[in-house]
Amino acid sequence: MSTLTQDDKKRAVARKAIDFVPDDSIIGVGTGSTVNFFIDELARIKARIDGCVSSSDASTARLKAHGIPVYELSSVGELQVYIDGADEVNHSLHMIKGGGGALTREKIVASAAREFICIADEAKYVSKLGAFPVAVEVIPMARSVVARELVHLGGHPELRQGFTTDNGNLILDVHDLDILKPLEMETAINQIAGVVCCGIFARQHAHVLLLGADDGVKVIR
Ligand SMILES: O=C[C@H](O)[C@H](O)[C@H](O)COP(=O)(O)O
């Protein structure tokens, strides 16, 4: 029986991720409870980095509270690493993200990085994506038209109630999608007019997965 809680595993992968932070660099930082542990670990070594590019207002606030400089993405060049959590990750290191609604900025910052380091506990490691609903960020006026298209793709979209993204948009959480080919499903959703971004990260897949398990942190490439 496991003696480690899910938070223990998140803390362990957050600590391990520090090994992947290059000296004197600006790193991309994701969003969520696992990343919050990572930001707290980063604070301990903040003297050896130049700062971060953040993927959400929440992460920016936490970084700044630790006195870690936060830069605009447009004012920096290519990032060496982007470190973020996931809601699900498969064996090809494709992910579902967006449980916290930060998917669009996460995908943008990830696209600017050479390497995506995913930090997650083992409950999120799956052979097939899709048990976790796919978040789709939509322009508010397109909500119904996008929802109908998502039904055509086999999903059951549900509006995330009382939630607005950092970009002022809405989230549809799409249940029951049959994601046999993550890249194809990501592309199909992205092609719907009114969609800003979808939470399938197949194009911006992870390069390294740090997986928190009962017997320690596994490094999967
Ligand atoms: O929008 C949120 C992000 O995609 C998170 O990376 C994802 O939801 C995982 O968050 P957590 O570490 O809290 O499980």
From TrEMBL:
InterPro entries: NagB/RpiA_transferase-like, Ribose5P_isomerase_typA_subgr, Ribose5P_isomerase_type_A. Substrate binds at T31, G32, S33, T34, D84, G85, A86, D87, K97, G98, G99, G100, K124. It catalyses: aldehydo-D-ribose 5-phosphate = D-ribulose 5-phosphate. Transmembrane segments: none annotated. Its EC number is 5.3.1.6. It comes from the Bacteria. Homodimer. This is Ribose-5-phosphate isomerase A. It comes from Rivihabitans pingtungensis.
